[in-house]
Amino acid sequence: MKKYSLLLLILLMIGLIGCKKSEPTEIILEDYACKDTPLAPGCYIPSDDLNFISPIPDEYEISETFETDRLGQMPRNWLLYRNEEYATDGVKALVVEADDNRYVELYSDGKKAPMYPQSAPTPTFIFTTKFNLDQDRKGVAYARLMLPEDQKANEISLGVSTGAVNTIAIVINSTLAIQVKTGGPFFYHSGTGDGGEIFTTGYTIEKGVWYSFKYEWDASINQVSVSMEVDDEFIILHQGSFHVSNRVNALSDGMILVPNVFKITMPQNRDGYAYIDDIIVTRKE
Amino acid sequence: MKKIMILILCSLIMLYSIPKSYAQTNIIYAESDYDRLHAVIQHVENVLKYGHEYNEETKLLPDAINTLTGEPAKWTFPNRAQVPYANLANQQNFFRTLVALSNVTGDTKYKDEAVDILSEFMENYQSPNGLFEWGGHRAINLDTLDVQSFEGPNGPHELKNMMPYYELMLEVNEEATLKFMRQLWTAHFYFETTDMNRHGSYSTAYDVNVFGQTIPDDVIQMDQQGNPIIPADSPGLLPFVNSATDLAYAAFTLSDYTFDPIPADWAKYLMRQYNLASNPITGMTVYQFKSTQVTKTPAECAVPSYTNSGCGDRVARQFRDFGPIARESNVAWKNTQAVYVDNILMLLEAADKYGVEHFVDWARDYIEGYLEYAYIRIDGRNKIIPMFIDGTVTYGYIVPEVGYFGPSKMRLDYVDMPTTYLLPILRTILQTKEDEDRIKLWGYFRDIVYTFGLGDIGELGGASPNLDLDTSIDDPFALMAMVELYDYTKNESYLNVARTIGNNIVNEKFHRGFFVQDEIMLYSRLDQPDTLALLTLDAVIRDIPLSNMPFYLADSGYIHGYLLSDDGVVEDRNYSQNIIYTKTIYD
């Protein structure tokens, strides 16, 4: 009996082996050839180099006379800061016209301000346009300003900024005195904010009169200045070096960062109007 | 002799007659499997190429790469200063990717890269007190190779669910890693008062005996109704759970490595405070177990937009209409990723690796409670109902004034449930021992998976699923979930869905030689989880045990500080995720 069992098993084995060998249509599934050599030259193909796009933006100047902007609208190249907390007409900048000249009426209710930096005198009204003279590292800006006599005039500052940091600006306070401010505000180092430097000029303005200002900067010689046009000539209100520290208008190694924004601000907690015209930024010879 | 012959012959017959698929795992590695791996290799090679190209004096890599120029991502300060940054706390998934890639390719060069980068970092950028120069407010400036602070000149140490790849760090520099894990507690945990702070000082002296004190009584005590009393006396030190998660993870790793159980005991103590502070009825847990005391002046705090924590509990200020439940700890519509995803993944990791088994029960209580009360399916989408942890719904509430939680007039609405929830839910189920304890969570998981468009995973255990093999989902968390379900069930349906998801990820997210969030997104982040998920899939197809692969734990790296806002003209305080990684190729 055992012999028969053994014989039967041997036959079964032979049969099984034989059957498997005789399958003509078996689909043989194999691993992909690169499975075990994923980095081999025939398998891995490095990607092409990126098509290089210069990270250096083009330079451009600005000439904002507002003559082609639409009446009753905000000038198209400008940004007026607002957030969810601002009232609908809490800040306004609208093109108006008188004597065939278009210019911009500015209004601020002085009630709200950007949330950051906190515990800082951030302005309510922030009206800006940008330019780029980063390669030249020098430039000239012009601006005209008028505070109204038939409306409530506001305090105002206008000048050139490096990002959020003031480079040089004139500041008209409630007594209509003209001050010059270099640097600040910049609260990146919170609690030890560098507020910049204020210079008195001895000049005041009159309401209802247009005034022209000229700002110049040249990082190669570390000079900034601001002038006011008097009798067809620009007289210097302040001339000096950039307000440079590790925190304001500079890199940590002291390299001066040049302005790229023309900025007009009106403070929190004060409301009123102002008018601007002919904001021009051009190359410095 | 004959008996032996018969036995041998019988065995041979069985071997030949049993189909191969039952005898062993026999997954064919297809060309499409290699295509996915090829994309990952290209991504990694490009990150290494362009990342190293920027400053050849260092091996450190930037946190993200501009996929048009190959340049590093840069932080723009309010003065326009642009700083390319290497924040190694934000690169942990890339290190895991490098090790995983070496595992699947068999070439050690990728792991060697990770080792080289970490070696340089740990040797040169460990503060004398033991903290590394990384985290939410510090990084390395890739122009100067100096430490760069983003929050004042002396930004604090902060980790929030970054869960570093300690296994590799210990391999690279054991002494530095151990010193860091100890100092993390010295700098962030106030043993005298049991206060914990998300911010740690680089001036705090190193204390080798950091865990030497007796573990005190619990901070959280119960009132007469059995509800937790949340203290409001913290002197500005907010014990956010996302920082506690990192402290606990470090302590468990430290105990495991040194065989000293004391750090793990402190970790259990810390995590127990969150458990005690959880709502006893709903099971939902808290983001913090203390509120801050008022230290600022009434004049400062009278301004709603002043959100400094020195004005007391910020939710009590902004959501006072809701009464006593309105506390920062009790909010269940913000920071939920930290509470119900990252925190739970750490609890489960601690349970799995370090034997803290009751953490699985806690994880299940938290997430079951959250799903029971806050999960809703609307219009075929998984959603979350905004509410406090006692179940008080805030849906539809219009916030009357600005505050820490957002602007005025903001309406609280349902929010989409992110796919990140898949992993903590699944891992909780898989680590729960008794079937009867799994049933409820499995039901939610089944609904959520179905609603995400993956098909039906079937009854408890998932052995007989009816999955959508043509799913369009392209999500790394869905992919990891399917891989882990395959690993658990060995049902190939899960593997096939995982392959579909993996193919979708490559098709939708692999552009210009990098993995990006979307085709139009400019930056490729090193911390993105897609490549690690794809390598996890590749590993299971190769029959590499998941336990041999680096494990996904978090994707929470960020930088927070002062910067120039997107408009380029005002100063802001924000996160890299909101300002930098949202930029598109058209910006």
Written account of the structure:
The complex is a heterodimer of chains A (285) and B (587). By secondary structure, chain A is mainly beta. Chain A has one domain: Jelly Rolls (Sandwich), CATH 2.60.120. Chain A has 1 helix and 15 strands, in the order αβββββββββββββββ. Chain A has one helix at 2-21, and strands spanning 62-64, 79-80, 91-98, 101-108, 125-130, 138-146, 156-162, 165-172, 177-182, 197-204, 211-218, 223-230, 233-240, 261-266, 272-282. In chain A, strands 1, 3, 4, 6, 11, 12, 13 and 15 form an 8-stranded antiparallel sheet that branches. A 7-stranded antiparallel sheet of chain A has the order 2-5-14-7-8-9-10, with no helix packed on it. The longest helix of chain A has 20 residues, at 2-21. Chain A is elongated, with a radius of gyration of 35 Å. Chain B is α+β, with helices and mostly antiparallel strands. Helix content of chain B is 43%, strand content 10%. Chain B is built from 19 helices and 19 strands. Chain B has a 4-stranded antiparallel sheet, with no helix packed on it. Chain B has a 3-stranded antiparallel sheet with strand order 10-11-12. Chain B has a two-stranded antiparallel ribbon with strand order 1-17. The longest helix of chain B is centred in the N-terminal third of the chain and has 24 residues, at 31-54. Chain B is globular. Chain B starts with a helix and ends in an 8-residue tail after the last helix. The relative contact order of chain B is 0.12. Mean pLDDT of chain B is 93; it is low at 13-24.
